[in-house]
Design a protein that fits this description.
- This protein has 304 residues and is of the alpha/beta class.
- It has a domain of 206 residues: Rossmann fold (3-Layer(aba) Sandwich).
- Helix content is 40%, strand content 17%.
- The protein is built from eleven helices and 14 strands.
- The strands form four sheets. Strands 1, 2, 3, 4, 5, 6, 8 and 12 form an eight-stranded parallel beta sheet that branches. Strands 7-14 form a two-stranded parallel ribbon. It has a two-stranded parallel ribbon with strand order 9-11.
- Helix 7 crosses helix 11.
- The two termini are 38 Å apart.
Length: 304
């Protein structure tokens, strides 16, 4: 396929784009800066999907569009911060769909997040679980609604609801330093659920969804074995050969992050039922094996 990718210069896109190219797809990366680093035959063009413009003509020249655009969520949620989180996702998707309205028969893969389910407690969240409450749930709802409008123009829409992505270069980078110094520990009481996915499995999920014509609608992009936060921190510490004895108190996290602390103090216990039904097989279904694969890359990078 000819694939046009937005928001692909960060962690997930930096892994996904080469993976798609290796599978024989012709990939064009639409980046806000022309300095995005991808090797040929991957093509890079300058475009910002938050603003409509000539880049929209490119959409009709491709078989599929991948939208990963969105400003960072892990920031202090003041009014301006919340607006940036919401509008960067909603407007980029809206303008992509506006371009899709001029053509037919395309595929839109638009990222989303398991934050759609809000604070789900111990309940198991499948793709059939209703939307939860809270700011992130509202963002995910609005983001998904914009993407689904593409169906009105005859396009196939797939929406991976992405969990915490584990890999060298992602959120795990920020956790490694304190844990490697023996300063890591559970967050709050540690009983909140932690749904995750290995970066290699996420790239495989996305290519699988693009290449599987019958795939449509939302898919939980998460490993089939979620863990509690306490279990995750113990496994991470063990993989580094360090203790995990210094928990992060809830009040300290709320002082540091404000309302955004809720992302770390609550969780979702997600299952990838829709992916399993389509026959997708995870290379890393369990946390210990995933960390065993990932941590050596951190140690190599640290020593080089």
């Amino acid at each position: 396929m000819k694939i046009l990718a937005f928001g692909a210069t960060e962690f997930v896109g930096a892994h996904l784009v080469p993976h798609l190219a290796e599978r024989g797809h012709e990939v064009t990366v639409a980046a806000r800066s022309g300095k995005a680093r991808f090797s040929p035959p991957i093509r890079v063009v300058t475009a910002d999907p938050v603003t409509p413009g000539p880049w929209q003509d490119l959409v009709g020249e491709h078989d599929a569009v991948v939208n990963l655009a969105g400003s960072p969520v892990m920031t202090r949620w003041n009014k301006a911060g919340k607006e940036a989180v919401l509008q960067s996702r909603v407007l980029s998707t809206r303008h992509i769909v506006d371009a899709l309205a001029r053509t037919t028969g395309k595929t839109l893969l638009c990222a989303n997040a398991i934050g759609f389910y809000g604070d789900a407690g111990d309940a198991v969240c499948t793709e059939e679980t209703p939307r939860g409450n809270g700011f992130l749930a509202e963002v995910c709802k609005a983001w998904q609604a914009e993407a689904l409008h593409a169906q009105e123009f005859g396009h196939r829409v797939v929406i991976p609801r992405i969990s915490v992505v584990l890999g060298h270069g992602g959120a795990l980078d920020k956790m490694i330093t304190p844990f490697s110094l023996g300063l890591g520990g559970r967050i709050g009481h540690g009983r909140q659920w932690f749904s995750w996915i290995h970066i290699n499995d996420l790239t495989r999920v996305m290519s699988f969804l693009l290449e599987t014509h019958e795939a449509s609608g939302p898919f939980n992009a998460c490993a089939p074995e979620p863990v509690t936060n306490a279990r995750f921190t113990q496994s991470l510490a063990k993989s580094l050969g360090r203790p995990a004895i210094l928990p992060v108190p809830s009040f300290a996290l709320r002082l540091a992050l404000g309302e955004a602390a809720g992302m770390l103090l609550t969780g979702q216990r997600c299952q990838p039922e829709a992916l399993v039904r389509l026959g997708f097989e995870f290379a890393f279904p369990g946390l210990d094996a995933a960390l065993a694969d990932i941590i050596p890359a951190f140690k190599t990078a640290r020593s080089s």
